[in-house]
């Protein structure tokens, strides 16, 4: 990958779903990236203090009603979040040819490239991403080949960020389980090696933000996704009968949303909520998502205690990997694809 400016237009067609547009080189939104962006509504996300004695029931209500909320007192140090953000800017501000040295393989999950959900949409997205699991040692060496100190700093901060996000997410999962009047014995696998993906998202400044989309409407495949979006808005959740609810950033908060697997686990009680990220013409926005799922060998199915004769299990058991694979085929219809078909009476 020796060449300098490597724009999407010049890339072979099989790379169009992997190599992002060279956003700095365009003054208008090209046809390939032109979206009709529905305007947002008014409204806000519930803000929950994790130290509040009522946190449990507030989380349950938020997960049942919208499927998303914001948290404070989440335990992740503010200073660490700022450092993760700084390193995220360092990465995305690298020249395009350098970022392409850490390109994700077309069927891979980790590395640099367009968001994996690009394949759901006919129009291209105004964003780029970098995902990792644990410390991205090899990718850091490709991104900063002549700066070993920067490689170490990047890896250390990303590792620490994942460690703290994991602890906070596990605390919220515990509250969720208790809020459903269940105990650790009902979800023994939560104590095992849960899997997680750390995804850095970048939304370059867009000359015509009403004609482009950062991340198109999607639900996450995870159990829970926890997002740090710093001081720039862009993330919006679709509320039933409300429309796109923008999340105005409050310093130090994290945004949490229910993913498809948690919706399956709760037999549909918790909503896996559609969300999107819009772009703007003044700020380069970044966000950091901790995408938390079950251990790789655990089949997720509706919890027995949440089902009975009147509430039969709505979904078939599935492991995360198979669910994610099905999602690349069925997109936002994947939950329906895993629905139990009602047996006919004899
Ligand atoms: C295990 C997962 C979770 C995926 C799909 C698959 C691999 C890559 C993940 C992400 C990471 C970036 C945002 C997202 C929306 C995307 O485009 O790719 C995520 C998506 C999801 O949460 O569904
Ligand atoms: O950029 C954001 O705020 C949203 C990111 C997101 O939805 C995701 O990573 O799945
Ligand atoms: Fe998402």
Describe this structure in words.
- With 346 residues, this protein is α+β, with helices and mostly antiparallel strands.
- It has eight helices and twelve strands.
- A hairpin with a 3-residue loop joins strand 8 and strand 9.
- Helix 2 (78-92) packs across helix 5 and helix 4 packs across helix 5 (148-179).
- The structure holds Gibberellin A9, 2-oxoglutaric acid and fe (ii) ion.
What key attributes describe this structure?
346 residues, IPNS-like_FE2OG_OXY, 17% strand, binds Gibberellin A9, 8-stranded mixed sheet, alpha+beta, binds 2-oxoglutaric acid, 12 strands
Straight-line distance between termini: 63 Å
Total beta strand runs: 12
Q: Unreliable stretches, pLDDT < 50, 5 or more residues?
A: 1-13
Query: Biggest β-sheet, characterized?
Result: 8 strands, mixed
Ligands, deduplicated: Gibberellin A9, 2-oxoglutaric acid, fe (ii) ion
Structural class category: alpha+beta
Mean pLDDT: 93
Please list the strands of the largest sheet in the order they lie side by side.
Answer: 1-2-10-7-12-5-4-3
The percentage of residues in β strands lies in 15-25%
Protein name: Fe2OG dioxygenase domain-containing protein
Domain Fe2OG dioxygenase: 193-294
Pfam families: 2OG-FeII_Oxy, DIOX_N
GO molecular function, one term: oxidoreductase activity
């Amino acid at each position: 990958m020796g060449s300098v400016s490597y724009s999407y237009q010049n890339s072979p067609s099989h790379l169009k779903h992997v190599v992002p547009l060279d956003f700095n080189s365009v003054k208008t939104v090209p046809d390939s990236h032109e979206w009709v962006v529905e305007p947002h509504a008014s409204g806000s996300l519930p803000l929950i203090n994790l130290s509040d004695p009522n946190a449990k029931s507030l989380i349950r209500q938020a997960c049942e009603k919208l499927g998303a909320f914001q948290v404070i007192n989440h335990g992740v140090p503010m200073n660490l979040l700022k450092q993760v953000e700084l390193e995220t800017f360092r990465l995305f501000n690298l020249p395009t040819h350098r970022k392409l040295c850490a390109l994700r393989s077309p069927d891979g999950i980790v590395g640099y490239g367009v968001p994996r959900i690009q394949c759901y949409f006919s129009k291209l997205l105004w964003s780029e991403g970098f995902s990792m699991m644990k410390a991205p040692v090899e990718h850091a060496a490709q991104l900063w080949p002549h700066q070993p100190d920067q490689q170490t700093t990047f890896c250390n901060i990303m590792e620490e960020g994942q460690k703290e996000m994991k602890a906070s997410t596990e605390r919220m999962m515990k509250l969720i389980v208790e809020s459903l009047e269940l105990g650790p014995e009902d979800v023994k696998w939560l104590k095992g090696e849960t899997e997680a993906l750390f995804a850095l998202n970048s939304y370059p400044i867009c000359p015509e933000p009403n004609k482009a989309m950062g991340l198109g409407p999607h639900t996450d495949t995870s159990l829970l996704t926890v997002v740090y979006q710093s001081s720039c808005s862009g993330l919006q959740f679709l509320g039933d009968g409300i429309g796109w609810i923008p999340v105005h950033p409050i310093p130090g908060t994290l945004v949490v949303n229910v993913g498809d697997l948690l919706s399956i686990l709760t037999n549909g009680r918790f909503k896996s909520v559609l969300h999107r990220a819009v772009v703007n013409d003044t700020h380069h926005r970044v966000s950091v998502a901790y995408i938390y799922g079950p251990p790789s060998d655990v089949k997720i199915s509706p919890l027995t205690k949440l089902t009975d004769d009147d509430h039969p299990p709505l979904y078939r058991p599935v492991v995360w990997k198979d669910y994610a694979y099905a999602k690349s085929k069925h997109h936002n219809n994947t939950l329906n694809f895993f629905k139990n078909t009602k047996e006919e009476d004899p």
